[in-house]
Design a protein that fits this description.
eight-stranded mixed beta sheet, 14 helices, 8 strands
């Protein structure tokens, strides 16, 4: 299929590359042209304005937006609304709040432009192993886009979750669960590091061990093993853990619907605390975010001896 990828950051760039590898025709656009140029060298068709993106697409035009949630998405959708035609499709693949999807779909329906929300998980590893896709929108549009989803995802790695907003709603809860899982791993390793056995414990080896048939085995533990291999006691990073919004939205949803979600709520609170304090459990969570998503870490402060 022919598709435009708008936004060539950590995720968008690799998703475009995976689509190219799968035989799709990709129109590449980024606010800064150097990333567009980079993808052109790998086989994409470059576009240097949204108008040029639309000109190079054949109807029904498919545009996939991979931008940070918020005003940047609104700005691009407002511009595309004036450029696209009835039956064209906009896919928002960023970490958008699901209620914004509903508002944007209503806005685009005025011009009979179709809208799909796609929650995307896979981080910087998605190019190699594929992206887990959680999709919301009309079933007919989902089915039309299936060749794209099949290329981006591993086998059985995409799902139509329901009407507009359902994809990002499922992804929001997915990230809330992720918060809780990483917090549990962080606290477990903190207990190990605070014990009388700490000097003899190899945290990388323990991460590897727990993935051999244990009930707590997971890809996160594989990434934890990788992080400890690079820095055995995580001494080069601070335990500063950022939050990009999805955890907050999940906790707010739990409050709105009266669902008890203490693990996710407390893991969010711990992230806030990590931004003022520094603990080994927070180092673990920060290291995990760096491993799977390429999220920035804060370098540890070095103590200078007198």
């Amino acid at each position: 299929m022919q598709i435009a990828m708008i936004g060539l950051g950590r995720m968008g760039m690799n998703m475009a590359k995976r689509l190219l590898q799968g035989g799709h025709s990709v129109i590449a656009y980024n606010r800064t042209p150097n990333k567009t140029d980079q993808l052109v060298r790998e086989g994409a068709i470059g576009a240097y304005s949204l108008g040029e993106v639309v000109e190079k697409l054949s109807p029904p035009r498919i545009t996939w937006i991979m931008l940070p949630a918020g005003s940047a998405v609104d700005d691009h959708i407002a511009q595309l609304k004036g450029l696209l035609s009835p039956d064209d499709i906009i896919v928002d693949g960023g970490n958008t709040y699901y209620k914004d999807d509903i508002r944007r779909a209503d806005l685009l329906s005025e011009e009979e432009i179709r809208f799909v929300d796609a929650g995307v998980s896979g981080g910087i590893w998605g190019l190699k192993v594929g992206y887990c896709l959680m999709i919301g929108g009309e079933k007919e549009t989902y089915q039309y886009l299936e060749p794209v989803f099949k290329t981006l995802a591993p086998e059985e790695g995409y799902l139509h979750c329901g009407a507009v907003g359902a994809g990002h709603f499922v992804k929001m809860v997915h990230n809330g669960v992720e918060y809780g899982m990483m917090q549990a791993y962080g606290e477990g390793f903190d207990i190990l590091a605070s014990s009388s056995y700490a000097e003899s414990l190899d945290y990388g080896a323990i991460s590897h061990l727990w993935n051999q048939g244990s009930v707590v085995r997971s890809w996160l533990l594989e990434l934890m093993e990788s992080a400890f291999a690079k820095d055995a006691d995580l001494s080069d990073i601070r335990g500063y853990v950022g939050d990009s919004g999805e955890g907050r939205w999940t906790v707010q949803q739990a409050i709105d619907t009266g669902v008890s979600a203490p693990v996710i709520a407390l893991s969010l609170m711990r992230r806030f605390r990590s931004q003022k304090q520094d603990s080994f459990s927070d180092k673990v969570v920060a290291a995990l975010r760096r491993e799977f998503g390429g999220h920035a870490t804060v370098a540890a402060e070095r103590k200078i001896s007198a």
